[in-house]
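User: Batch of two.

Assistant: Item 1 of 2:
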Amino acid sequence: MARSIESLKVESFVAPDTLDRAKNAVGALDGRVAHTASLYELTEHALRSEVERLEAEHNDGSRFPKRDDESRTGSASKRSG
């Protein structure tokens, strides 16, 4: 998949089982199924799809407004405890 826009490396924490399952899917499917040519491609597609679903469900299909600052992006349970 050619990257038509500048990519930004993002550090994120994923449950080990979820990451292992994603790597296994990419390894097993090896690009024969859409969005499985690489872990990057699978991750980009999954994240984009979920954000689009959230926008459709919670913001009338529009993009959410930009944050004013570096808003919290971590787990709500970690912030409250």
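Item 2 of 2:
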Amino acid sequence: MDEIQLIRSMVAETELPKSDDLSPVRERLIAAARTETSPVVARRRGRRFTLVGAVGIAAAIAAVVVLAPFGGPAPSAEAAGVLRRAADVVRGLQEAAPRADQFVYTKTEHPDGVREAWQSVDGTRDGMVQNDPSEEPAWLPGCRDGKAQATKGGRPVPGRFTDCTPEPAYRPDMPTDVAAMLVFLNRNGLDDLDRSSANDRPVNGEDVAYLLRENYLSPQSRAALFEALALVPDLTLEQDERDAAGRRGVKISWPDTDDHGGGDLILDPETYTVLGSEDTAVLARGVVDQVGQRP
């Protein structure tokens, strides 16, 4: 049974919850999406990617057909094949899970320069982002007991705190199979939108790229993410493309639609490592014990 048949059978066999059952869950999801922490330079805001609870999962499974509608445009066979091969390769990797007290280090190249970031694995420790070597680094306050240190101009404000929800750089609860990953992407991708309807919008390519660029994911979660992307309609594949650092790879692109902008990822053609995109390059990533260390 392939992925589409699996999803179809799940939709047919599962009784969807009533509207009254979904209302509390919808309210919690909207509230979580709109929760704000103190502003931080160059940090993505509002993108929490919180997993959906058990109530409402059946409705979310039904909504997955938006990503790969039955009878609709089929994904590019060549692009989908590359993504599935990437999933097979990545799934076989052996990587130790980081400790909660560690930090995910990411060095990326953007049109405006090179950025280095140290993000707390569990979201409770204070991290840092360096956007320009000539400027002071910005502080990334950790969220402890629902409170985070307030910041101004990237620096902590003594004695002032804001309400918060931890934003971990590593998610051990990320889905590891394609059906659950489709649900996760469909329900949690875009900021400040009610995505509890069966008419949810398709996955945003930039959401996927953000997860792969900025977060440390287990091999199983990365594999599931590649497999989920293989089901998105109208993918395109371009050989011998270059990322922002000039490295050659294969480019997988998502189309620009009325619902969201297009996105792309450039992969190493042999290892399927995510190199970046046309305007972004992941130069280094790893796990370190403290802010300021490099792998």
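The chain has seven helices and eleven strands.
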